[in-house]
Amino acid sequence: MSQPEVACVVDSLRGEPHTRVGRLLKLVFSSLVRRVDARMQPLDLTAMQWEPMLLLSKGRADTVAGLARECDMDCGAMTRMLDRLEQKQLLVRQRSDSDRRVVNLTLTDKGRDAAAAIPPVVRDELSRHLQDFSPEETGQLVSMLNRMLENGARP
């Protein structure tokens, strides 16, 4: 972001503290995703594709429905995105023998190689965004963000 853009954003955040926090969270997330996405181009992965690849490689999901849930995406959109990953030969889909409604997902060798390249990129970009933070400040930020998540999960 250029200096004039940063100044404009800062000026737009001079309102209520809660509004500023929400806007800043969104801006930080967008900046992080933009930088990670740019570095995913050599892997031929888009913003919508690298997160599911990473989740599959970490065993966080192994079905279309499970992956859609983890990515907070509807099953139809996930299916269309998986079509593209399958065309790139990064994963294969197979119907479950025990329940035809379930579609199991497996990374190919090419997909495992691509997925292995994702965590270092994400780590590098997180480090870039936290480069001037002390370990204590980073811990405090993590603690506050966790509290925000816990507050949001309350009924």
Brief digest:
68% of the residues lie in helices and 6% in strands. With 155 residues, the chain is mainly alpha-helical.
Radius of gyration computed on alpha carbons: 19 Å
In CATH, the homologous superfamily goes by the name Winged helix-like DNA-binding domain superfamily/Winged helix DNA-binding domain
Uncertain spans: none
Number of strands: 2
- The domain tally reads 1
- H/I helix tally: 8
CATH class, named Mainly Alpha
Q: What structural category characterises the helix and strand content?
A: mainly alpha
Walkthrough of the structure:
- With 155 residues, this protein is mainly alpha-helical.
- It has a single domain, classed as Winged helix-like DNA-binding domain superfamily/Winged helix DNA-binding domain (Arc Repressor Mutant, subunit A), CATH 1.10.10.
- The protein is built from eight helices and two strands; from the N terminus they run αααααββααα.
- Strands 1-2 form a two-stranded antiparallel ribbon.
- Helix 2 runs antiparallel to helix 7 and helix 3 crosses helix 4.
